[in-house]
Amino acid sequence: MDCHLHTVRSGDAATTPEQMLRCARSAKLDVIAVTDHHAVDAAKRMQDSAIEYGVRVVVGEEIRTPLGEIIGLFLQERVPYVLPLAEAAARVHDQGGAVYVPHPFDPNRSGLGRRGIDQLADSGLLDVIEVYNAKMTAEVSNQLAASAAAEFDVPGGAGSDAHDPEGIGAVFMELDDFSDRDGFIRSLGDATIQGHLYAHSKRFRSRKPTQFGSARKQYTP
Length: 221
Fold this sequence. Notes:
Elements: E1 2-5, H1 17-26, E2 31-34, H2 41-49, E3 56-65, E4 68-73, H3 85-94, E5 98-101, H4 113-122, E6 128-133, H5 139-152, E7 156-159, E8 171-174, H6 181-188, E9 192-195, E10 210-214
Protein name: PHP-associated domain-containing protein
Pfam families: PHP (PF02811), PHP_C (PF13263)
């Protein structure tokens, strides 16, 4: 599974829905989470067409809040942006979704940082921390995220954060199959991460492929 992907519906990505499904099949991904910025319509439409590609789509959304971005997974409808963090996360939970915290310590993007993670944890709204994101400029940002996941005893997720077809599956997770939010979160406890940092744009520097251990634990690249 690649937990973090963007189509053209995000407004800053080059991948069409059909391209994403073709690339997911080529990368031998079983499940993809389509997490467009402030939109779920493309992901919802992809769920039916994904069947012919042998791929399953989890509907997600990357949501901007005043403290930084979160991702809602297993959504039924869009969550508005710029809501207070706790309200946005609560709306994800109200739909039976999971709150997934992407790139929390990336200095170049809108990560929640420690303040936002603390607020979610205190509110009981923290489900998953992204411990490996392929677009990091430095491994330390992923390591900090892995440490936070271990500290708060929440599972770690991983995704390519691909905005172009070539980046799809740059990082993925191997985990037991699941059918819903709760099964997904349980499966993350024994998941493994494989992949590499990938330069989705010229300002990001590629790294050699490597393999990581449990998503729940801190790893050494």
